[in-house]
Design a protein that fits this description.
This protein has 351 residues and is an alpha/beta fold. The protein has three domains: 118 residues, Udp-n-acetylmuramoylalanyl-d-glutamate--2,6- Diaminopimelate Ligase, Chain: A, domain 1, CATH 3.40.1390.30; 105 residues, NIF3 (NGG1p interacting factor 3)-like (Udp-n-acetylmuramoylalanyl-d-glutamate--2,6- Diaminopimelate Ligase, Chain: A, domain 1, 3-Layer(aba) Sandwich), CATH 3.40.1390; 89 residues, Alpha-Beta Plaits, CATH 3.30.70. The chain is globular. The model has no long low-confidence stretch (mean pLDDT 94). It binds zinc ion. Zinc ion (ZN) binds next to helix 11.
Length: 351
């Protein structure tokens, strides 16, 4: 099995086109045409994780966070990023990051795991993405089959967990008052694919083999977006909820704003640095917003309207490692996938 086959599968779970603009998810280091010898799943592909991959004879690291975010200009081992890149290349180890594209998924995403840990029901995306377009193309069945395949190759017709989605119907059109049988093809694609999709459509349109319309989709796609909101099976007092949160998320401590003397039933959350979603959490009347990386002044923004609970970045995302491991082991049996044994949390607590 080639590395590219594994990555192709992961990209059906979390298509890279759904990563945020600042992100660098994808194959960062390595040759996707190599055969997989084993996989290490982790949050951070640090040097000890690369060492672990070498020791376990695994040539693929699937990390949540990209080890490289910005351009690197020198490779002389002066910082941990350069050392990881150099060591991985020297040892033929590929590093793939599945980051904000995995954050943005309703099913099998980073927040899905948090929802499961907290036993939440009626979970939804907190800030759904609204960047989809729909194509309607008209032509002969044969031409539309070709067109469909070309668009699928680009990544159109992919909704989380399902790919190659389209709909076709046979109908009767008229041209110059004369009726003629035509097939209509419909498929959805993310706005990020606009350029590629349009050049394919133009090619067919110039040949005169299709007519088409591309329209913006106004309904928010509830499968993709940032953060999540859900309900507890039973309301809890604030103190018992904080205890529950600490136990379920296996954290040493929870940093939180003033309690409000109300029961907790609606819970908004976002693994990692989700502070930008506070307004969404308040607007949707969450009783608590769980995330990480809050700064001192940002805690004031709770302003008695919600409880902000910061559980730590690593802690909020730690179960993503198991998620990646499960996704791979359920699909592939011809190589070993391991959860890293390295705790890559750069933050420690002294009690
Ligand atoms: Zn993170």
């Amino acid at each position: 099995m080639k590395i590219k086959a594994v990555l192709k599968y992961l990209e059906t779970i979390a298509p890279p086109i759904y990563q945020e603009s600042y992100d660098n998810a994808g194959l960062i280091i390595g040759d996707a045409s190599e055969t997989v010898t084993g996989v290490i799943c982790c949050l951070d592909s640090t040097e000890p994780v690369v060492d672990e991959a070498i020791a376990k004879k695994c040539n693929l690291i699937i990390a949540h966070h990209p080890i490289v975010f910005k351009g690197l200009k020198r490779f002389n081992g002066k910082n941990y990023i350069e050392r990881v890149v150099m060591k991985a290349i020297r040892n033929d180890i590929a590093i793939y990051a599945i980051h904000t594209n995995l954050d943005n998924m309703l099913y099998q995403g980073v927040n899905t795991r948090i929802a499961e840990r907290l036993e939440l029901k009626n979970t939804q995306i907190l800030a759904p993405k609204k960047n989809f377009k729909k194509l309607f193309a008209f032509g002969s069945e044969q031409i539309l089959n070709q067109l469909r395949n070309e668009l699928f190759e680009l990544g159109a017709g992919v909704i989380q967990g399902q790919q190659h989605l389209s709909y076709a119907s046979v109908g009767a059109g008229t041209a110059n008052g004369k009726g003629e049988g035509k097939v209509k093809l419909e498929l959805l694609f993310p706005t990020a694919l606009n350029g590629g999709v349009n050049s394919v459509l133009n090619k067919y349109a110039i040949e005169g083999s299709i007519n088409y319309d591309v329209i913006a989709v106004e309904n928010t796609n509830t499968l993709i977006g940032s953060g999540m909101i859900g309900e507890l099976t039973k309301p809890m007092t604030e103190k018992s909820f904080l205890k529950f949160l600490k136990n379920k998320m296996q954290v040493n401590c929870v940093k939180h704003t003033d309690l409000r003397g109300k029961h907790i039933s609606k819970v908004a959350f976002c693994g990692g640095a989700g502070g930008f979603l506070l307004k969404n959490a308040i607007r949707q009347q969450a009783d608590v917003f769980i995330t990480a990386d809050y700064k001192y002044h940002e805690f004031f923004d709770a302003d008695g309207r919600i409880i902000i609970a910061d559980i730590g970045h690593y802690e909020s995302e730690q179960f993503t490692i198991n998620l990646l491991h499960e996704v791979l082991t359920q699909k592939f049996s011809n190589f070993a996938a391991h959860c890293t044994e390295v705790n890559t949390n750069p933050v420690s607590y002294y009690f």
